[in-house]
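Q: For a teaching handout, I want to show students what a protein-ligand complex looks like in token form. Below are the inputs, and the small molecule is adenosine-5-diphosphoribose. Please produce the holo structure.
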Amino acid sequence: MDIEVITGDITKLEVDAIVNAANCGLLGGGGVDGAIHYAAGKELFEECLKLVEGLPDHRGKTGQAYLTKAGRLPCKYVIHTPGPVYRDGQHGEPELLASCYENSLRRAEEKGCASIAFPCISTGVYGYPKEDAARIAVKTVQAFSPVSLQKVVFCCFSPGDEAIYKRILNEKD
Ligand code: APR
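A: Here is the structure, written as tokens, with adenosine-5-diphosphoribose included.
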């Protein structure tokens, strides 16, 4: 599985699936969630309404991943995953963040996707330290055994984030 690191707008990527750093309400918000919903249009919001209707308490769970179609986006699917809100790293945040990546990869595989792009989940509003989050992201993806997936893109939103991912990817174990 190839792993790429870029700086860019995830809503523009022509991959099979993009991952959305969502909240448990799964109906949009700010940051990359807002950008994805804005670019996808109301069709995505309607998809998400249907999604939440089928969930217990009509809400998602942190660390889980939920696949929908992609509305007007160039990709085929959006995988919505609520990341953990960072407190101090001692309240299950690392495990929950790893689950976001693992479950998103699983959802993509269930649809036979060949490519997937991730934003830097939980490192914005949810306050996860960027380096810790990037290490969890890279190690979780590297540990995954793909069937259909051939390419994973870490779509950073700043050159600084891109540099963190590239440094971690080049580390010798
Ligand atoms: N493309 C790629 N990455 C983006 C884009 C974009 N268009 N817009 C923002 N980002 C980056 C941010 O710079 C950050 O690195 O996505 C990363 C995740 O930040 P947030 O979007 O704030 O997500 P998160 O920290 O997981 O918080 C999720 O914030 O926006 C709300 O509705 C969202 O409640 C949820 C919470």
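A: Two things your students might notice: The radius of gyration is 15 Å. The pocket of adenosine-5-diphosphoribose is lined by residues 9-11, 21, 23, 29-35, 83, 119-126, 155, 157, 161 (CB under 6 Å).
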